[in-house]
Automatic annotation (TrEMBL), chains A, B, C, D:
Record's protein name: Chorismate synthase
Pathway(s) it belongs to: Metabolic intermediate biosynthesis; chorismate biosynthesis; chorismate from D-erythrose 4-phosphate and phosphoenolpyruvate: step 7/7
Cofactor, how bound (note): Reduced FMN (FMNH(2)).
This protein's record includes keyword Flavoprotein: yes
SUPFAM superfamilies: Chorismate synthase, AroC
Protein family: Belongs to the chorismate synthase family.
One Pfam family matching this protein: Chorismate_synt
Length: 364, 364, 364, 364
């Protein structure tokens, strides 16, 4: 199957290239009678759109979402919800130089080989612009999950070698406000300032830098996840790895856990206020691939964006040496804009798994 | 959908619990006319089976595979290949104590909540025994990929804090031999010895320890991977994360790459012997989610096995405090036996993506 | 899964309600480098659109298709092709009377029960308007199949009790021209005239009438179809049965064949001009669920449209008796407009099966 | 995708060839805590097995089902249920003559062309023996549906030109008993006798004959079916058409309905005992692709089995003329044994749609 769909029961299919007429998504499987708050969808898109600050790309897109179907008198009908986002600020001539060139660490070469044809303008389908459609769909998923009190919170926990300290996650709503109060979307204000300074310097140097996003999901019912292959963390991992520039995913104790002993790693069950909880949470809220009610936690690693404002050696489509100069308007660091994409993909995974859980729920 | 299938065109469905009659798999979509070497399949299973050394579980299973269908006169027919592996050495009474208990960091609690019924013996479906079925299927996938010269090599690159140095991967066949020459399956002999000593000590202490497995895939054709959601590394990540005890996945530069600059991270294209290659390979052989012909490299992190030979506090199924004592025969460290599972899942992802690539291949 | 997608490798997802902003489709899996002839797509839509003749509904829609993605310099890129068709001539007030009523033999009652919410205007998602999106996608499928010389021809073979004689199908292009030369789309001119007269009379009486469509597919390569469940005729059957008002599907000898003897029903193989053919074709071109190279033939039965211009007893949404009067502008007989939908669904099934065949094709 | 799976949430995958070691099925998605009555499963298989009467094939198979997984203490665990049925009475030498021949109207030619390799013994995977696995799975589906009071009843309504009169379907349990009291499984005893005589004569003449099966499903909840493509009747149609020898499917008024007028065809809603029903039921219990609570009714047409006990002209695998003589032990008429397969496939469709309905059920 061509891989432009995500999810089984809450399923999305996206379309659109960076310099085409529009990008968009069809959501098939949003249950009926969910209030579809269009302003909320737009506000989510605004968190992703280009031109939002000095440390992101200076391209301007209003990313205005239009709902074409599936909503009646403000509520989902249970029929497919189509959302389109017209493209506006395309400077296709900025890309004419790459029609015949393969930019290093971009998808130019692989797309050309795979398809034999490539819409080179703005990177075509390989452009991160496509993720706007995911954010729109993720917003609808969030509206669905809202009923259940599920909270999703992501923030930039690292830029380059700068890492924020572990957060006190007691009050996610408060962390969200703190995060949105700075342009790098880190929920630790001190680190945020250092990050902004770092990215600004990188931008002036015509370079780019990577980063990491940490996510917490709270109030997930016990029982989400479909072993043995569609374990909840496996689907979260696939979701994150499908985002442009992601090179790593870990949940709970992650890579650090591989260096630990079982005696220190095991999460002991305790009974608290008539609920079963664990004393520690190295499991990241997921055991045997199924949610156990504790906070789900995971981290996503982003490589530095490949488009840098410096000349680089490369090969052209005839195989000859050439030079690629960075042109266009690009992000020095993608993670501030990626936070909302990570949240969107998280919402999509949870919405899908919630419906799968609902189908099989043990009624006895 | 219940999550017991993996893959789209080369699709496997597994079944079986640890103490049930048998475990097994149906492979639907193995192309016809592939030579099905039953001895090879058995040899792969032998690399996973319990009781193989002092540093793995002492349970004895012969894990003998029987092919029930889909093979005629030694070749695949294009019809489903069913393989079953009878269970033998089950000591169900070793588990009677956990019928009413939730073992820490196991799937007991989540399975009980999700299904309302739990085959507690040996962990039932949540047991890693299920992975034997995957290894059998992965062996068939390897036989299919063999025709294309694709080589898959995985080894234990870390146990606890012990890490092997980076390997010279020029000769994968040689590394394979070195790996199989020690019981921890690390391709660096010096580190292997240290690892064996470490695990043996952990075992004697009644504890367990985590580790990491590094994988290389060579000679992958350019063009495998289906953006935007079924990117090759996203499916590899999901595959690895679906393996018991896995908590992290990274490919190419991985988490380290998130701390790098674009100017140092980009892989420059060069022309070598009429082939396009890259000077470095931080991309791990995948760009824009599509293979570019360079070695694919990734690492999988395993937490320490949750079953330890020590008493632990826990909760019983009525919510009362209880003590769980470790009984049964368990691995102190899972990674030596997991190497072949990682290779199997890798083969399954590649086989599936190869068929998808073949379906859409640009003929012009 | 919500059922708005069709196909596996050549997969479409449609959206849109009769009185919403637009209807449309995403095609995911159209191979790259196919010439996308927009005029052809529009001409196919014109064969379905309302207001085309006196014997179809008098609603006017221009059904203008806009391609939003997946096409570059006139060719498919291998990325998703999104096509939208804005809605124009909606008289929503024509439907205010059914907001609270269940029209007989419509989907009003079942949609209300299933979803708990219903866009009643124009029948919402249950309206046959949705099929315009399928015709657009089917047109793209036809462009793909054209390369292989596959010919698809459908025509109205019955209206009410009027049946056309069996056609001489030697020259399908000629039959197509004959079909398009009359407004009922029957390829036998004499029967066509009788049919037009019959439908016109039915229309004047404020009633509706059913009919049947016969389809022939020529030059299908041997080997399409995926036993045991995705047999070619099983997927054709599902495709046809998914079209509004379809109540029956038969292929080859169909229902008549059930009354025959094996000795008279078997198709004897003969060698002709270095090709294997059959002397008769009761198999309808499909044996064991796989195409054998002979013409594929099948028939689709349509019930009479449920919206009649007469008063009918019914129930309102509170369960009380009420009267439904037929309002709005409806088809007296749906089959003239359905011919192109049948062809479109046929093309979609064949395109999908062709790609699946290509994935598994035996290279030895 | 290779087509050996059926269903989405209640999903089965079958394997096995006629003369291989065994046939079988994995059911993935049977909800937990369903009582799995193994005797019931066996009794269903006994209704399909060969050698059951003088009017069916004289091959002897005990078709004993073994459950290998997914059941614990008599109940489903929610994990995959694997059932295998060993093959016993294979006379492979009966088939040596067809290793090089294409039997008329069999799948020999198409399988050879598609796969390039063919297990010719007993027809390999194309043999109707595969349906035993479906019956086993259908039995589990029936056990699941039993809780909801859903009743499925099928019977032979036609053999050749002999048609049973329409039944009084008030008491389905009684009809079932009547059906099982004769070897042709027709619920009208008079017609049954005529059918038996007809088939016996056909058998003696070394010929075969076709037939039809009528099915009724009662007590289906309102709301099953997933428009626009996975309409309930479309999935039923695909299910039936996937059964060997099926050439036609119709539901409700079927092909006859295509000759009717809307004024006579519409089903008028009435309120009866606080339930909404329809006065007539030309809709066959399904409107807009969704069940409306009335009896679902459909008919499936079977062509005459292709293996006849007479010489026939044919082609061998080198393209030369040859003669095929009917050897082996075959059914003169397949419908008495197919009744249980039709019920099984019906149960599988309903189980799958019930879970899909459950996932999306409107809670408000």
């Amino acid at each position: 199957m061509a891989g432009n769909s995500f999810g089984y029961l809450f399923k999305i299919t996206t379309f659109g290239e960076s310099h085409g007429k529009a990008i968009g998504v069809i959501i098939d499987g949003c249950p009926p009678n969910i209030e579809i708050d269009e302003q909320f969808i737009q506000s989510e898109l605004d968190k992703r759109k280009p031109g939002q600050s000095k440390i992101t790309t200076q391209r301007k897109e209003s990313d205005v979402a239009q709902i074409l179907s599936g909503v009646f008198e403000g509520k989902s009908t249970g029929t497919p919800i189509a959302i389109i986002i017209p493209n506006e600020d395309q400077r296709s001539k900025d890309y004419s130089h790459i029609a015949e060139t393969f930019r290093p660490s971009h998808a130019d070469y692989t797309y050309q080989q795979k398809y034999g044809i490539r819409d080179y303008r703005g990177g075509g389908r390989s452009s991160a612009r496509e993720t706007a459609a995911r954010v729109a769909a993720g917003a609808v998923a969030k509206l669905f999950l809202k009923q259940m009190g599920i909270e999703i919170f992501a923030h930039v926990c690292a830029v380059g070698q700068l890492e924020s300290p572990n957060l006190d996650t007691t009050d996610l709503a408060n962390l969200l406000a703190t995060r949105e109060a700075n342009i790098v979307r880190c929920a630790d204000p001190a680190t945020a300032n250092e990050m902004i300074e770092l990215i600004d310097g990188v931008r002036k140097a015509g370079d780019t830098i990577g980063g990491k996003i940490a996510t917490v999901v709270r109030n997930v019912p016990v029982g989400l996840g479909e072993p043995v292959f569609d374990k909840l963390h496996a689907d979260l991992g696939k979701a994150m790895l499908s985002i442009n520039a992601v090179h790593g995913f870990e949940y709970g104790s992650g890579f650090e856990g591989s260096a630990m002993y079982g005696s220190e790693h095991n999460d002991i069950f305790v009974q608290e206020e008539n609920k079963i909880r664990t004393r520690t949470n190295f499991s990241g809220g997921i055991q045997g691939g199924i949610s156990n009610g504790m906070d789900i936690s995971f981290r996503t690693a982003f490589k530095p964006v490949a488009t840098i404002m410096r000349d680089q050696d490369s090969i052209d489509t005839s195989g000859n040496s050439t030079t690629v100069s960075g042109k266009g308007r690009h992000d020095p660091c993608v993670v501030p804009r990626a936070v909302i994409i990570v949240e969107a993909m998280t919402a999509l995974v949870l919405a899908d798994h919630f419906l799968r859980f609902k189908a099989y729920k043990n009624e006895q």
